[in-house]
Design goal:
about 325 residues; Rossmann fold; 2 domains; seven-stranded parallel beta sheet; 13 strands; binds galactose-uridine-5'-diphosphate
Length: about 325
Amino acid sequence: MAVLVLGGAGYIGSHAVDRLIQKGYDVAVVDNLVTGHRAAVNNKARFYEGDIRDAAFLNSVFEQEKVEGVIHFAAFSIVPESMKDPLKYFDNNTAGMVKLLEAMARYNVKKIVFSSTAATYGEPKEVPIRETAPQVPTNPYGESKLAMEKIMHWSDIAYGIKFVALRYFNVAGAKPDGSIGEDHHPETHLVPIILQVAAGEREQLQIFGNDYPTPDGTNVRDYVHVIDLADAHILALEYLKQGHESNAFNLGSSTGFSNKQILDAARSVTERPIPAVNAPRRAGDPSTLIAASDKARSILGWKPQYDDVKEIIKTAWNWKKNAPAGYDDRGGNE
Ligand SMILES: O=c1ccn([C@@H]2O[C@H](COP(=O)(O)OP(=O)(O)O[C@H]3O[C@H](CO)[C@H](O)[C@H](O)[C@H]3O)[C@@H](O)[C@H]2O)c(=O)[nH]1
């Protein structure tokens, strides 16, 4: 029986595929390579290039593979882009989920682990954020993922498809050997942008907003290492295989770092000056996002290995030094 990983050539998906292979799972990957990289996919996984919204393609994958469960990473995830082009997000993310569940119902696949996001909570009323907090997104990206959670809820009731929604906070870092990592075009995320400045590829970091109600005025986020995140998906799959009901879990470290603190940590890790300037707020950004993640720890048995943001940045820097131009620099993942 195979684990089908949708979006397995993307940043988080490729790390999850790698961990699944390391743990002895049989893995099939689907990715349309719009934002993913073929070279990021562990070559022990079977690879199908195509789009999950293409029902004929998806059916052909389910025909060829005996799927025990699906891990679904295939989605767009850039907050500012979603503000400019919301329909792109509702099409790929939300409509893509409908197509996927149709195929799962058709092929009697009853388990799905799904990438949700802290962005479904919007601007929280209480920090740290618990899974029971109101979900009121402040941007279309979060709204598209909230709609996906709701679609899964009703599909569970109607078709018995059990799901685990993993609500990620801010993901960073890379496989410690530097063989796979984050490579977005264009890059919009804080840690890789800071490292591009450290590497001399960008002149300076723009810090979006310094008048938020936070200790130093910049946004506060909760950072999780991509390998810890990947491992949570495997635990969630096992949880569903044990026959549990559908559930949702936050994945974070329960510690907040401001954008300025991340910059300082990166200066220390890279030993480079990393020039930065204050810039206007970015539309759609909540002020502070910190997870209460004890539910994942107690119910899934999740034990994140990385609790130091400098260690997380160090693995991202290792990847950056190993592959300065990302996957353009390298052939494949052993
Ligand atoms: O050049 C930059 C880039 C980012 N930031 C700031 O850095 C923080 C983090 O921004 P990212 O774009 O790295 O991450 P987000 O918090 O916007 O988004 C992340 O968390 C979200 C949940 O809120 C979603 O899950 C999303 O997919 C994930 O990337 C924000 O305050 C942002 O304004 C800057 O100041 N300068």
